[in-house]
Every structure is written in C-alpha cells, then in structure tokens.
Amino acid sequence: MYGDHAPSPSKSETTVEIVAVISDFQPRLMSYVKTFNGRIAVVLAVDQWVFERDIDRGFLGEALVGGLIFPNMALVNAEYFHLQEVKLKRRLAREMLESLVLNYPEFSYGFFIQPEYFMYEAMNERAQLFPPKMRDLLVLMHSNTRDQFLQASLRGYVEALRQLESENVITFSDGYVRLCHRFVDKAAKQRLLFTNLFKSGQRRLFMSLLGALLRFSNLMPRNIEFLRSLQKGFMSSKTTERIVTPENYLLIPTASGLVPFTSRLDIQQFARKVLAAGNDVDVKTVRMGGILNDVYLVKFLFVGTEKTVVAKRFRDWSNFKWFPLTLWSVGTRRFSVSGRSRLEKECAMSQLLYSEGFCVPKLLHVSPSERLIFKEYIDGEGLDRIVRKIGSSKSADDVTKGLELVAKVGETLARVHALGVALGDTKPENVVVTSHGKVCLLDFEQASRRGDKVWDVAEFLYYGGHYIPPFADVTRAESIAKAFIRGYISAGGNVGVVKKAANPKYTKVFSIFIFPHHMLAISNVCRRADKGVI
What we know:
By secondary structure, the protein is of the alpha+beta class. It is 46% helix and 17% strand. The chain folds into three domains: 79-249, no CATH class; 263-376, Phosphorylase Kinase, domain 1 (2-Layer Sandwich); 381-527, Transferase(Phosphotransferase) domain 1 (Transferase(Phosphotransferase), domain 1, Orthogonal Bundle).
C-alpha cells in the first residue's frame, strides 16, 4: 500500500493505492477501483515478472514500482517487498552517482555525500516529473509520521549503498559516501551512452505519466474534489520552496571544513562567518585585476593582524574574452568557458594538488551557486617577472638564479603530470616564488585529469618567450627552455612530451605572442630534447 497514509491506514479521508504482485498473472496488468468502508482504493494487479522487470531496469518507466520510493506498507510478504525496494534503490543510487559524474566530472572525485541525498533526490525527481506527487511529498514532510518514514526509507538506501560498496562503486568514510575513482573514470568515458539513455528516459516518462493518469482518471466520477486537489499540485508555483534540497547533502572539502554544495555566502558573509571577523571589523575588498574573472583581495583585521584572502568570481566566457585564442587554437586545445565548469576544476584540482603536497593556495570556501571561491593569498614574486629578468638582465648572478627557479618549475610540472593531471594554463604569471624560494602554482580553472601535457610544456615555454626583449640574444630564450626541460626530465617528465611541443600544432597557437626567432630557438631546443644537449 502506497502513500503518506501507509503508516496510518485507518485514515478515512485518504485514497488508498494498492499494488498486488501476482505470480503468473494473466492478463499481465489490470486496475480496479473499490470502496472499503467509505474509502476509495485503487488496486493495481500486476504480474510478478513485469513488476520485477520494472524494478531491475525500469521496464515500464517505474510506473509500477515508483511508490516504493515514497511511504509504503507491505500488507503481505513484507520480506519480498523489502528485497525489491533495496534492489530498486540500489539501481537508482547508481544512476544518481553516474549523473553526478556527468554533471560534475571533477567535483565527483572529491564529493562527500550524505546518504540522505539519494532519498531526497529520488523523491524530488519524481515529484517534479509528475506534479501531483509534489502534493504527496508536501503532505509527507509535514505529517506526524515524517521522521518514522524517512528513517525507514533511509535504511533501505544505506543497505543499497552497502551493496554498491561491495561492488567498488563507492566507499564509506566517517558515514559519508565517496565515489571510487575507477567508477568515476569509467562513468566519465560513457558520457555519450548516458546522453542517449536520457533521451530514452524521456519516452519512459510519457509511459509513467500515462499509467498514473489512467489510474487517477478512474476516480473522476467518484471523487471530483480529489482531482481538484491534484490540479493544485500542477498549478502551485511555491511548492518546491517547501521541499528539502538534495544538494544540501552534497559536500565539498575545503581547508575550513566540508561546505554544502548549496552554500550562498558572498564576500562580506564569508569574512564574518568563516573567517570569524566580527561585525565591527572593517572588511575591505580590493580588485586585483582579472580580465576573465572578477578577482579581489579581501583584507580585514584578525586579533590585531591584517589577514588577506583571495576571492574569485567565475564569469562565463561565451560572448567574451579568449575568443581570438580559442579560434586560433582550433584543433590544438579546447578551453572550458562556462563559469561553473571552471569553478569546479579550480576547486577539485586545488584540493587534489594540496593533498599531494604541492604548494598551492588553500581552498578556504566555495559557493557554487554564486560562482565564488575563497583561497589563501600567497605572497611572492611572479615567475613572469623572473623570466623578464633572465631575458634582459646584465647580471650573470640574476640570470643564474632565475634559471634555477625555472628548472624548479619544470620539476614541479613533471610531478603534476605524474599524477595524470594537466594544468591547462601554465603561463609564468600563474606561478609564484615565495621569499624562501618555494615554487607555488596558482591557477587551475583549465586543469583536468587526462589533459594535454604537451600543451602545458608548450604554453610555458612559448608564452614565456614573449617576455624576452625582441633584440635580446636568442641564447636567452634557449637557456630558459633548456633549464625548464632539464628540470622537467630530471623529475621524471616524459621526453616525448617535450619533443611534441615543437610541432606546428602548438607553435602556430603562440606565434601571435612571441617573436619568430625566439620561437624557432625554443622549438629547436624541444626538438633536440632527447639528444643530450639540455
């Protein structure tokens, strides 16, 4: 028996929906409308084989079994229905995890998921696909039996998740669900497959709606008021505001703790809530450039000391910015242009590199809905200034020290590549050298797993080459390239990656930034990287 009435079957004002699963039932599916003690009951009789196919694969768009997601009571054979409910929730949980991978390919490696996410996501999705279910969900959320049902439903999901854990789909960590990396990798590669499944899901939806509407239409001559209440479910625009948001149970790790995916803190709220700056503290925001994004320094006093944090808001580039470079790099490199995608890469890669011991700014907080992140401010000298000195300085000591730092950058990039990560934007200004000589990486909004490592090498060398004065000796450009490549290969970098950076596929992209004679000198160094001349 389905519905919010299930824990209290004595309510006379509710309509009862009963599914009877019958072995070898002919015909396969029939519906009846009965009245018991003044209560209307819709009885759906279904063959066991059909019912179980709907459990296993959504044979009828889950029109028969969707009620197991909502309040239900087994009248006969409770053990059988519990088994089927767990099987259904296991399949739905796996599909939800696959959707998370497709929607958030980088975040999904680091998500901390509370089991409640699966319960609310399943209920909300069905309520949105068929609005009368929204009314049932609202009644449930405000009923006296709410906690009783939610706990019972959650136990089914936990049992299903334990089965997925045994299949190496997820792991449990302190009560949170974490996706296994192999599962994420596999799901990401099946992107087109799941896109096609989504289209077939639309057809299944029509079948679900048809089945539901046929059952409800049987009530028309008996209960007009009931149908009017269903219509209100379609028409109400405020119902979703009263439903629990599943994304509250998706959490992103930061240096200040786990942050709900639905966080909406702005700059002032972040400073006062997360950084514990009181209401009487003056919080200053100073714009520090950022052509493609809005980047600010957030300054405030904390226990008598001025603290500085970087706030970065990600804008979409669709009608804007890097269009000339994108056009020029067709066939060589694809850039992430949506603000959401770039924010996701920035957060995920920051956390990954930080956890692997790299010097990167700590991720302090993230507000995906505001497309805003807050990161630690790292004070130091930009590598672009160091490269300029190498290209123009008359001091041999300055040049030697600068080349040593460039070699360190090469070593750092090789270690990043060893993780299977490409940074995607390796311009020298995205590297800072601290006063202690530590190389720190800054920008990861184009980074990705399994990205183009050759692009990383090519961009650093060729884009960095445009800082060299036009009339400087080409040996300066060669010395920078040799120092970087020497560091890269010594740390385990692939010499084949370096050689490929000399291909016209990459040199053509940066020809608009660097003088031809310097580009030729750098590309020749890359081409001879395996000849022992570095």
